[in-house]
Design a protein that fits this description.
Layout (H helix, E strand, L loop, with lengths): L2 H7 L5 E2 L2 H9 L4 E6 L11 H12 L3 E6 L21 H15 L17 E4 L1 H4 L4 H7 L6 H5 L2 H7 L8 H4 L1 H16 L1 E7 L3 H15 L4 E5 L12 E2 L2 E2 L9 H9 L3 H11 L4 H13 L5 H15 L1 H14 L9 H8 L4 E4 L9 E2 H8 L5 H9 L3 E3 L2 E2 L6 E2 L9 E6 L3 E7 L1
Parallel strand pairs: 2-3, 2-5, 3-4, 5-6, 9-15
Antiparallel strand pairs: 1-6, 7-8, 10-13, 11-12, 11-14, 14-15
Helix pairs in contact: 10-11, 12-15, 12-16, 13-14, 13-15, 15-16, 16-17, 18-19
């Protein structure tokens, strides 16, 4: 299976400027390719992984990936796929975001030639290096003159915004296409970069680049785009009820990241295994077969969550995330670290309780259940305990006369309560 054939099998092929020519070019030797990442935040998110992993797939196949940090384009904002204009960032914000994103890119691409069997280290470039020194007049002469407004307006990313009579599109964002075209031209000229990859919403920007290269350099360049990562219901993947799923563990904890993939729907999980993991086709096919035979085992979801957390956060974070998940499924607390338990606390309803109430004789279990919100009344709490459905620190509590004291505190400040299989609450000492 060739690289392009594998990309198609994985669902990572939506369109190409010339599929046959690119396929032929890839058989002739390594190719340099790039993908841009605008620093709109100080972290990449799950949606960025599709093009980022595409660069990695090409690198593993012996090609030369270039990751472009948009120090210039990030100052403007890409209108592609956006219904309204972004808020402009300050130079300081952009610089800070680039520094953070650079560190994340280095986790997925190999920049050390000695560690690449094919001597094909990745490169990291910043388009501010060649865009910022250029004057506005020079840009109009060197880039703007090669595009007609008619051609630019015909692009979907521009046309969709122009049809919005109320908001429209500013000249600033309208010019974004030319900035990205100039990036491709510059990289083709200076680094012999022949291919740009990205999601389908980048098609207009990418083809602007191939057009500029053709006109100014009389050279060939290719564009390859992947489908946007969406769920089976058509909604954008990488968003949750609480917001974006980030790669930065300070924004999205490894446990929450792990759980995000564990909760993948059966209808989505095989597609996600193909698009986001580096599991082989045989391994994915086996998981698909197991999913159909025994969906309750969620083997595909476990493989996806494990592979993604390991790739993004490493072995230690994966182990902690799995340990925290065990707790949420009733696992014992022996040997669990406070950091792991803190991830659990962040996922379940938590209420404060004065520590003094647990000192000495402590507080009755029934009162604790009512205070935590797991029971609406002491009468219901009694029934729940007698029915065997109440757990204290994941150990069944069957004695209605039991008291909760400071000896029950985890790490000197928490009590974990559970009703039934999955309804949790945490008391935190105030």
């Amino acid at each position: 299976m060739t690289l392009l054939e594998e990309l198609k099998w994985r669902g990572l092929y939506a369109d190409c400027t010339d599929t046959d020519a690119l396929a032929k070019r890839l058989t002739e030797g390594p190719i340099a390719l790039y993908c841009g990442f605008d620093p709109t935040a100080d972290s990449l998110h799950v949606g960025n992984l599709v093009p980022l992993f595409a660069l990695r797939r090409f690198q593993l196949a012996g090609h030369h990936p270039i990751a472009l940090a948009g120090g210039a384009t990030g100052m403007v904002g890409d209108p592609s796929g956006k219904s309204a204009e972004r808020n402009l960032q300050t130079p300081e914000q952009v610089e800070h975001n680039i520094g953070s994103v650079k560190q994340q890119l280095a986790k997925f691409l190999e920049f050390d030639a000695a560690k690449t069997p094919n001597q094909n280290p990745a490169r990291l470039v910043n388009n501010a290096d060649w865009t910022a020194p250029m004057s506005y007049l020079d840009f109009l002469r060197e880039v703007g003159k090669f595009f007609t407004v008619n051609w630019m307006v015909a692009k979907e990313s521009v046309r969709a915004r122009m049809e919005d009579r109320e908001n429209g599109i500013s000249y600033t964002e309208f010019s974004y296409m030319l900035l990205q075209a100039f990036d491709f031209y510059h990289l083709r000229k200076t680094l012999n970069c022949e291919l740009q990859v990205g999601a389908t919403d980048q098609w207009g920007n990418i083809t602007a680049g191939t057009e500029l290269i053709r006109k100014k350099l009389n050279a060939t360049a290719y564009g390859l785009v992947f489908p946007l990562l969406t769920k089976s219901d058509g909604t954008k993947y990488g968003k949750t009820a609480t917001g974006t799923v980030w790669l930065d563990p300070k924004r999205t904890s490894p446990y929450r990241f792990y759980q995000f993939f564990m909760q993948s729907e059966d209808a989505d999980v095989v597609k996600l295994l193909k698009v986001l993991t580096f599991l082989t086709p045989d391994e994915i096919t086996a998981l698909e077969t197991e999913l159909k035979a025994n969906p309750g085992a969620r083997a595909a979801q476990k493989a996806l969550a494990r592979a993604m957390t390991l790739t993004v956060h490493g072995e230690s974070a994966l182990a902690d995330a799995q340990r925290a998940s065990e707790i949420m499924f009733g696992g014992g607390l022996e040997g669990v670290s406070e950091a792991v338990f803190a991830d659990v606390v962040g996922e379940v309803p938590t209420k404060d309780l004065e520590r003094a109430k647990l000192e000495g004789a402590g507080l009755s279990l029934l009162d604790v259940l009512v205070h935590s919100g797991l029971a609406p009344s002491k009468g219901q709490a009694r029934k729940d305990v007698e029915g065997g459905g109440i757990y204290l620190n994941n150990v069944r509590a069957a004695d209605i006369a039991r008291a909760v004291t400071t000896t029950d505190l985890l790490f000197g400040k928490y009590v974990l309560l559970r009703k039934g299989k999955r309804t949790y609450a945490v008391l935190r000492m105030a």
